[in-house]
Write a structure and sequence with these properties.
Number of strands: 10
Strand content: 25-35%
Radius of gyration: 19 Å
Strand order of the largest sheet: 3-2-1-6-5-4
Order of helices and strands: HHEEEHEEEHEEEE
Length: about 230
């Protein structure tokens, strides 16, 4: 298999993975929006008290997202309404982490997790500012698994007011598996990055996960809305 054929073999599963994960976060955001909208007053939007959340239904939607997407390692809902709606700056995180042996459900608040504030995380900030889907990573997820992770997030707006983010996680090791399953031996020399040039995967030495790609020895050969593929120039 030549370099061109190897490249095409990699592109299809990567496009499927990234597209499906982006779709999962957007679909979860839509479902949460439909669920929470009746709890919000259209004339005068106010803070949604955590006690008002239908937790069982939220967890069911998250679990359905995980079961429908074999690539996801976790999914959840990060609630934080815009400041005028939420003067106490309250936040809540409903998250289910898919383990090899069992699933772990987390419900975090400032009272239960004083050192975690997802409002400072890029996947939350960017999604809120863009008012649309955002793919973040790779980064080390110190909350769930201490592994290199990518997060696909989508915002939740109700009556034009921001109420939080729906997100799904994909382990970088899962992306690696998809690539290695289709690459022939010996491995062709390729580098995969996110759209900002941060390395996700490489068969070339000297390119580590998380590094920013700075090399004139590589040329981009495929550009996707969520990733870029490089070959030696």
């Amino acid at each position: 298999m030549n370099a061109s054929a190897s490249l095409h073999a990699v592109i299809a599963p990567l496009e499927h993975l990234f597209t499906q994960c982006s779709h999962s976060s957007q679909q979860l955001a839509q479902q949460l929006t439909q669920l929470l909208t009746p709890l919000v007053c259209a004339a005068a939007p106010t803070e949604l008290a955590a006690t008002a959340f239908p937790k069982t239904t939220i967890e069911a939607l998250i679990n359905r997202t995980l079961s429908d997407n074999c690539f996801c390692s976790g999914a959840g809902f990060a609630y934080h309404a815009d400041a005028p709606l939420n003067p106490q700056a309250k936040w809540s995180l409903y998250w289910i982490y898919k383990d090899a042996s069992h699933d772990t459900a987390l419900e975090l608040t400032p009272l239960t997790q004083q050192h975690l504030d997802f409002r400072t995380f890029e996947w939350f900030l960017k999604t809120k500012s863009l008012k649309g889907p955002y793919f973040h990573g790779p980064y080390v997820d110190y909350i769930c698994n201490t592994s290199y992770t990518m997060t696909s997030a989508a915002p939740i707006f109700i009556h034009d007011c921001f109420y939080g983010v729906a997100a799904v996680d994909i382990l970088v090791s899962r992306i690696e598996d998809e690539i290695l399953n289709v690459l022939p031996l010996p491995r062709p020399k390729i580098v995969l990055t996110n759209t900002f040039g941060r390395v996700i995967f490489s068969t070339l030495t000297g390119y580590r996960v998380g590094d920013i790609l700075r090399s004139e020895a590589l040329v981009v050969v495929h550009q996707h809305p969520h990733f870029s593929l490089y070959l030696p120039a």
